[in-house]
Amino acid sequence: MASSPAFAWGVLLLAGLAEVWWAVGLKYTDGFTRPVPTALTVAGMVVSVWLLAVALRTIPLGTGYAVWTGIGAVGTAVAGMILFGESRDALRLACIALIVAGIAGLKLATPDT
Known about the structure:
Blueprint: H1 5-29, H2 35-55, H3 61-84, H4 90-108
Helix pairs in contact: 1-2, 1-3, 3-4
């Protein structure tokens, strides 16, 4: 399925966004005591890992996994700021920027895919 590099990177981006979906969903499950948010969160987990596996057919494991977790970390941090009023102080934003720089660096350092 993920035969072309551009397609694989697109699938990896979707996998990272699905990771944000389930990570944010955890907040709504109330410790997995709410059935509908729990089911949606578990669905997000399945989608995220499945898309990651598809992308890893083309993208090297270390790069793919690091980018996936980076997208999830940045997306979840931003979602926390927007949805839950979490801190937006300069140090936190700078650290998020460092993660984004790391993601971009890994992409640039993987020219074959």
